[in-house]
Structures are given as C-alpha cells and as structure tokens.
User: What shape does this take?
Amino acid sequence: MASASPVYQSLDPTLKHIRVLELLPGTFESDLRGNLRTVTLDDKPSYTALSYTWGARTEGRTLKIRPDSKRTSKSIELPIADNLFMALRRLRRPLKTRILWVDVVCINQEDIDERSAQVVLMEEIYSNAESTAIWLGDTGGKSIYNDELTTSQRLLQSVSSMFRNNIVLRRLWDADCIPMDHAIQTTTPSWKDRGWVVQEYALSQRPYFQFGSRTRIIDKTDRLLGLQALVMPYTGSVLQEQITDFPGICSLAERLYGFYHIRDTLELGKKMSLYHAVIATKGSETTDPRDKIYSLLSFLNPRERELVSPDYHSSIEVVFSRATYAAFQGPTKFAILELIKFNRPGRSSALPTWSYDFRTSDPSPRHIQFGKITEMEVPSLQMNQECTELRFEGVCCDVVTKLTLEIPRSRSICYIHHSHGISTEGCVVSETWQKAVELLGLAEKFFRRNEATVFLNISDGFNVGADNQRQGFIYNTTFAQAIVEVVSSLFTNWESITTHLGIPLASHNFYSSQKADTEIDDIYRSLSYCNQASDSTTVLITTSGNIGVAPGAIQGGDRLVLPLCKTASGEFEAKVTPFEQPLALILREREDDKWTFHGLVRMERFGNKAQYMQNSTTYTMR
Assistant: This one.
C-alpha cells in the first residue's frame, strides 16, 4: 500500500523508474541539502551508488529534501542515521552538485509495494552506476597506533601520506593502513557484515573504498600488487609481520575474499544456485530477515529467481518456505536441507520442518555438495498455497531398526561446562570420552591392539586436573581424532563386533582401511553435519543390515526416503541431490499420515534398488 509521504511521489511499477539524490554543494559543517529526481534506468542516467550500513541515529541528524514532484523553495527534513550523515558530508562537493543513489533516501521505506518493486531493480541499479562508493566509516582525523610507531615508521607514514600514488612507497609503507583500519573498527555495524553489500560489491563496475576524506580504487587489473591491491592496503615490508596490528583490515580482507567466487561467477555470465549463494555469503546480516533472501536475487539462476519475488507483505516464515521450495526446483535440488539446524536457538516453530531458516549465520556444507551436477527435475514436487506442506513422489529405500551409538557434540557444549572439573558427572566431554574408551576397549579384542592401548593410556590421567590447558589437550589429542578412529573402527570391523554382540547383520564395505583419505575426511564431515544439525551423531542400523551416520534426533522406525527424479535422458532415478552422495531424507510419520523431516543420513549403501524403485508413494512433509 502506497504511503502518503510529502517527500515522495509514487513511482510507476511498470517502468524502471528510480529516484536519484542531487546532493547540493556545501562546506563540511553546513546543513545537508538535496533534491530528489525521478529517472528511468533505460535512459542510462549518470550517478554514483552508495554502499554503506544504516546503524544508529542521533536526534537532529537530517537531510533537507525538496520533493521530486516540484521545485519549490520549501524543504522537508528527512531523518537519517549517523553513518549516512557522515558519509554524505564526506561525499558532498564544495562547489558542484553530486548525483547519488542512496537506498534509504531514494526508496520510500514506508511504502511496502515500492520497496518490493525497487528490490527487483537492485541488480541494474548497481551494475549501471557510474561508480560505487563503499563507505567504510569516518577517520575522525585520528591516526590510531601512532603512539606505537617507531620514529622511522612515523617518517614513512608522513612521506607516504604526501605521495600516496607512488608505487615504490606503497610497497614500503601504505599510508592508508592506519586511517582505513580506524574507520572499519569504529563503525558499527561494520560494512563487511551487512547482507546487501555482497551484491553491491559484486555487481559494481567501478567500486572504490571511502574512509573519511580518503578514497581507494579497487583495481582488479593491478597484478603487480596482487590480492592486497584488490581488498586492502599493502602493509609494506615494514609491517609485513605485524599485519595483525590492523584487525579491521584483516577482517575486511577475509570477508571480501569470500566475495570473489560470486564476482568471478557473475563476470563469466553465470548464475548461482540459492544453495551455493547462501554458503558464499555466510556471515551476512540484515535488519529484515527476508532480505537475507532478497539480497541474493541478483546472483540466482532464472529458475530459482522467478519463484522468489520480493514481497514484504508476506511473513518471514512464508518467504523462507518459498525460497526453500525454489531451491528444491533449482539445479541442486534438496541439497539445501543439509544446512538446516534443528537445534538452532530462535528457530521459529511456525517454520515447516523442511524449510531452511535463512537467519542461520554459519551455513556450511558437510557432504561436499560441489562438482559436476547431474541435470534432473522432481516432476511431482508441489507446495501448498499456505507454504506449509511439501508433496512429492518418493521411495522408501530402508527403515531404521536400531541405534547403536550416540556421540554427543563435544567441543562447544564442553565450553559451557568449563567452570567444573572434566570428571564432573554429566559433562558431555566426559560422557563422550567414556564411550570412546569403551568402544576402543571392545575393538581391541578384535583389532588395532596397539592403537587402542595408546588411547587407553591417555585416559589414565583423564580424571586428574581441570584447567583449560588440560581440557584443550584432551580435546585436540583425542576427540578430534579418536571419534573418527572409533567410528572408522566400527565400520571397518562391523561384522566382527556385531557377531561378538550377538547381532546378526549382513557384511558391508562402508568403511575399510584400504579406502582413500578423502573418504575418511568425508566420514568426518558427516559427523560434523550431524553434530551441527542436532547436537549429536548417531550410528544406525537398517532393516537391510546397512549402517549409516545421522543426526542424533533420529529414531527407530524412521523412514529413509529418496525423491523420484527425472534425468535429462528421461529416465527416473531416486536421489536427494544431483551430486554423487549416498544421502537419504529422514522422515517420521505423523498421526495424520503426513511426515516431518529430521535431517539427512549418509548411508554405506541403500537396499535393493530394483525392489524399492517399484514401491513409490506420495509423501507430504510438514
């Protein structure tokens, strides 16, 4: 619904209309004044786009605006945040009007329909901009760390400041280090953490950093300075071993390094799947959770993008479910399900179990969902109008019959218990270690006598002492390796152990000592996925005698289901993702004959394919 704002006149949603800010000239201290003017992107207007963070607002910080409908002498004061207030002061020219595009000024934030329509145009707004000013913050006229510099370093700082474009001096000492780092550290929230900046940086033709009155061009063709020239000042040989003295610059460099895959992909004329875009932009934050998705639209392939139309009228849960459904329809199919964390604090109970919560700050792939993609579609996949149910045709390839081992998540939970002794009853580290020792003790009767003895010897001093150093030693020397050793030992010698326990099972080849190290790493990633999804890992047995690794939330009787997919050749396959991974959906039946999702399971192998492919059924997940 359009807002009757005295500042804004409605934009025609059928045309590529945007507003630009004509920032009037003035001195640094004078009031900020400007005009709004409506232009169309088809006319290729000239403007500089501003990339910045909103942040807090101090009373009295305003921009005096003349409405875009009439050139009247009457101005309207528009309140703006402190960071934008300082950025406009620095960007303003003393004698000449400057044309800018600034989201909070040029978009009527109170008009939901306009916000939704303008988000669709973001890709063109930034890619068509003459340049993009990336505002990192103000320097305040200060040079932090100056007190810590030696006399020779202060001299280099002064000379380098006078001759900033001299490449020889820049290789020795870059004068931008101190003010740039100060700007990054003192600006809250930091530019690098804002979700929208990923596309603003990746799409811009001529981006440059601005911090205080200084500017720094990001030149992708500067091969002499290499990566340092692309994202941050070169600290020079004087500070090369003291780069950690500039934590702001380090964090910016690390963040932008992750953007290169996106930018290179776009420059090659390619688009990304939502699954890969979410992983590439992890750590980004937005004020509105829905923008976690809308800020990625410019990167997405056409199939997924057409299913995710910006709509600020819809609830967060509905937007998340629509986006998850779009990912299912994209090239990576159900791969985004592995990013779901069921134990995430604050996960909305209104979200369907199959819907990914895009507010998750650290989405990481656990099953190496990269590489060659097999083209396929899920023809039966449908979502209901309320975005609460997902229906698809699938096959049950196996059923969970027994859970043999649950390994609690060790490291992060142990930190919660750091105040008590390691041997304290109930500490998850102690519980995990005891299970590892018991399993290795059993395994010693059949195999690996030497290795098991080593681990058991380490356990002798387990109940002695409780300081952080001892805890760190135990974790780093045992759990990071012992858990993998325990599980690999189980898999390698499963038949011998199950015979000893009196459990008749078919032989398997899930994990053998002859397998490559890459497969060992894959097992470890599977354990990591299970831990992050539900705080624990479970080794399970199925009715077919196969074993697998799954999140601890799994229960006996859960179905292991594979969706039916149609390949490019017209043949039907049963797969969760287009990658070569032995993964299945963990589904649990409800009383109403519908199903809930409880994670992905990595199996040694599935049951009889010829048999289970003949028994497809319709599953409805909630």
The longest strand covers residues 390-408. The chain has a mean pLDDT of 75. The first helix runs from residue 82 to 91. Residues 38 and 347 are 41 Å apart (CA to CA).
